């Protein structure tokens, strides 16, 4: 008898849990998800638009100062690796002279 009651309780609990989990979706929920997605896309679009306008404005200012070459991005933003390598090598003390025993 006790086993029967336990089984019945388990079945009742599962049915109650399933009924809580099974909520019918409404079209308003789908619309809200779509609107959130559209808002994110719109926000990304606005950020990209703002960045492009900012770059164009800076290029225009450089062109007014320098001329047509001002529209190009300056190459000084990258480092000259060969130059740095040679400078570092020239400043590092030479070990060959110290390692040789005095004659």
Strand segment count: 0
- The percentage helix is over 70%
Distance separating the two termini = 106 Å
- Binned strand content: under 5%
What is the C-alpha radius of gyration, as a whole number of Å?
36 Å
- What characteristic shape results from the CA principal axes? elongated
Biased composition (Basic and acidic residues): 28-44
Region (Disordered): 1-44
InterPro entries: POLR1D-like
Task: Give a topology summary.
Layout lengths: L1 H20 L5 H40 L14 H11 L4 H4 L4
Walk me through what this model shows.
This protein is mainly α. The chain has a domain of 65 residues. Helices cover 73% and strands 0% of the residues. It has 4 helices and no strands. It is elongated and about 95 Å long. The termini are far apart.
């Amino acid at each position: 008898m006790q086993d029967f009651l336990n089984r019945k309780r388990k079945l009742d609990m599962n049915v109650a849990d399933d009924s809580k989990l099974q909520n019918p979706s409404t079209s308003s929920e789908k619309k809200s998800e779509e609107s959130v997605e559209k808002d994110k896309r719109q926000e990304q679009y606005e950020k990209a638009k703002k960045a492009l306008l900012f770059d164009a404005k800076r290029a225009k200012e450089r062109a007014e100062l320098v001329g047509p070459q001002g529209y190009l991005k300056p190459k000084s933003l990258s480092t000259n690796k060969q130059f740095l390598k040679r400078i570092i090598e020239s400043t590092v003390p030479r070990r060959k002279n110290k390692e040789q025993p005095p004659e």
